[in-house]
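Table S7 (text form). Paired inputs.
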Amino acid sequence: MHIDARNIENNSIIEGDICIVGSGAAGISAALEFLNTPYKVILLEGGGFEYEKQMQDLYKGKTTGQRYYPLESARLHYFGGTTGHWSGFCSTFDAIDFKEREWVPHSGWPITREDLDPYYPRAHKNLDLGPYEYDVKYWQGKDPELKSLPFDGDAVYNKMWQFSKPTRFGTKYRDTIVKAPNIHLYTYANVTDITANENASAVTQVTVKNLAGKQHTVKAKQFIIACCSIQNARLLLASNKQMPKGLGNQHDNVGRYFMEHLEIKSAELWLAKPDVLKLYHWEWEITKARAELAISEKMQRKYKILNGTASLTPLDIAKNQPAFIDMWTADTAQTKKNFAKLDQANKDGAKKEGHRSYQLFTRLEQAPNPNSRVTLDVEKDALGVPRAMLHWELTPLEKHSLRGIYKIIGEQIGITNGGRVRLMDYLRDENDNTWPEFTGGGWHHMGTTRMAADPTKGVVDANCKVHGIANLYMAGASCYATAAAPNPTLTLVALTIRLADHIKRKVKAV
């Protein structure tokens, strides 16, 4: 069922069993888990079914610290959310990503990789991925031309990625959600405030507003906030009538530990002879699976580095490509043109005989840093909510890790006489912790309502429930305690399905 919140009577009271705020990958995945159940689900979307500039304006904000993308373009504000410009990259987290690592401050989750294992295959279905297989040998069995570089797997291994179509949740799941008798989708219903009971131990209702001047109240027994990492934190911080620092923020953790993936060109690989390196090749909307070079847990521990992967692009193509940080603009149409031009350049530059030189491009997890954070600005949006301010701050560990990754890769390729690795200039001085102008992120927002068993160290518990509030849950990558190397979408969908299962058990037991 679909209701446009602009067209119902002002100050309406909307009631249900479960209220989900946000209809991106997390919000829709949560709603799908309650299809055909006895529970009335209220799914709130701030925008409509298509991109609208005035809705995007609600996501405007300021950035400080490390150079970053315009906030209003980094997330899409309509049904389907940011899956509208998702590239479809998917891979699982590694076991080490969940562990406490003594060289990574604030690392460690209250769950393990094994806790997510049952949910990854279910997430595959939502994302239209292939078989739940991330073993390089499986894919090589499908195509003998997927030959590996000659690395020692105990040091450098091939981490496999699968690629979604990419699935646009707003297109694929629109009819399913709208036709579901127990799911009530309200569009143009922006949540502007969360209200708890007198001692703030449970949420009683949320307030929704829209640009048509309407305001409504939504009441439910369970609330799931699935807006995205920046907006999740913004909403908790702005809901400060009862708790001056914001809901769930007794220990000043909401908004802190904002993490991105550093996505940055880092080195060159020069091979002894040309090679197409088909195993490592990616072509937009064609490639089903490929490998990136990854560092084993053993070597991460030995060199005390963060987790990261290296992808390979022919150097004569890569050297003419602008940095991603310069391609992503506040003009969504122009951004699409920039990436279409990049994709065409990749196709035009391909050589059947292969290439001898490749650019090594790194996707590196960011160390959890409490100074990297989301706060509220004094300026408010058109609905009266303080705008978000993002301070993105890196640490010396990121640059140390980049050097470590290519030291290991360089040593391993050198041992085989298969080639050599050449570091880019900005990585050569081990005492230099500055970052070049072309440093960028992957548009992967994580960590602002981080998971921790100890309420003083995080915002949500192992079930994504806000500490101290019985019926308030956060969904999505904002719950990540560390970022890992892969893009966050596959894992956030798996984590959301796990959250939905937890709520099913909880409401059934009542």
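Next pair, protein 2 of 2.
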Amino acid sequence: MAETNQVYWQAHRGGGAYEAPDNTMGANRYAWSLGGIPEADIRTTKDGVIVCLHDTTPARTTTAPADVSHLPISEFTFEEISAWDAGVKFDEKFRGETIPALREMFEEMKGRPERLVYLDLKQVDLEQLGKLIGEYGINKQVIFTHNIQENCKSMKRIASGVRTMLWIGGGPERIMDTYRQARDSGFDGLDQIQFHIKAGGDEGWPFQLEEPFLREALSETLAAGVDLEALPFTFDGKSMDLLLNLGIRWYATDEPARFLECVQSWQSRQNE
């Protein structure tokens, strides 16, 4: 990937931090419309329906009644949660959005191979998830993601053709240690690695993860046929230029539209 100017990107929570309401079909369609890959966090309701929701409870993102909004989503049926609005607290124009069943997302992916999705495991039985993916025949459109490598390995065994990503957060030392464990395993069961990249470097390099380590990791992942993805939580044109010039071609972002502006500006300068 590093030899081309093509950039691939994930809309973290569908772009739910700033541009669309967390884990809704509106967010998914928004990411697809911009050429990105939405991320859905997946949990299971009391009656066994896999749904898209980041938090354990519905309090932050929905209009669930205050007397029950503190309860985990696993204590409600899908019918109960479908009565809550999951868009209006973000913006009035998203009124009517609900917590979607993962099946709803798959319905809009079936027969449309250009539509991919990241599925971030929160609380789901992997066998059940594998059966649902297989039912829709969208295995090659799914990138399963978790911060435990064993779960990625298990998902690849359960659902043939599904890709996997190990996301690695925390401080620089933890990220480097976890990455090197994955590398030393031969990236077993992994197609992608994601680093959470936080601000906090110096003027020459604005990220906590230092440039030499990123160069090392990029070289090793490229050699192994593994994609290296960066999630810079804060960025501007200058900091994105640094990552793009380094050769990183996969990203995750909370701000799809602003991210694309930075990427397109960089791409136009490469073509001059």
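The mean pLDDT is 96.
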